[in-house]
Amino acid sequence: MKPNWKTSSTLLLLLAGVLCSGLLVAAAPCMADDHHDGKASLGWHKEGRSHEATKPFGKALGEKDHGDETTGQIAAWLLAAANLTVALSISIKGINRFIAISPDLQNSLKKFNQFQKKHLMRFHYYGNPLILGVALLHWLSSRCRSTSLPEWALGMMILVAALGLVLKFKLCPKTMQKNVYKLHTQPLMFLALVTVLVIGHTIVD
Asked: What percent of the chain has pLDDT over 90?
């Protein structure tokens, strides 16, 4: 009997999405922490740069790396809150598809999923662009000179947010909407984003 690669791939993406959703919440304290001395581990540090703090507009003060805790906390918790509806939706779909539960419970979960998406999806649509602005402010006010991971994370956030805006306001041809939707809702992309955020903030803690 040949393995069902389609089912296996779907399961893998689902598990990655659920894991990513959990990491969104787990990453909040990490993103909110002050940045202390940079560590030379994992090989993510920028070469030829000292561990100096950079204020907005790139003015180096010769101090050690230090993060703006306030904007970090705001960005982290908004990120978790705005994507809560996505986490719930992925989890409910996974339960209904891969766990043996009664039909009544399946229907109840489906109804709850429709209800929460109806009332929470607006926070996803408008919250993530707001998060992007706060994240940009956080990066400008506490940019670390010892690693390039914050820049990678910010770039990934811009890409995901831009794809969402394209879908929301239908800024691409209909022939491309399906592919844009698949890319925007790809769990592995969110998993990669959260992983970069967590590793980047861990390095500079």
From this structure: 39
Can you read off the two tokens belonging to residue 113? 């999923």
pLDDT above 50: residue 202: yes
* 113 close to 89: Cβ distance less than 8 angstroms: yes
The domain limits of the chain are: 17-35+66-204
Between CA 187 and CA 194, with CA 35 as vertex, the angle to 5 degrees is: 0
Please state which of the ranges 25-39, 103-117, 179-193 shows the lowest mean pLDDT. 25-39
Sequence letter at residue 81: A
Give dist(CA 150, CA 148) in Å, integer. 6
191 or 63, greater pLDDT: 191
Q: Which residues contact 120 (CB under 8 A, 6 or more apart)?
A: 84, 85, 88
pTM exceeds 0.90? no
d(CA 192, CA 66): 24
Q: CB under 8 Å to 180, separation ≥6 — which residues?
A: 163, 166, 167, 172
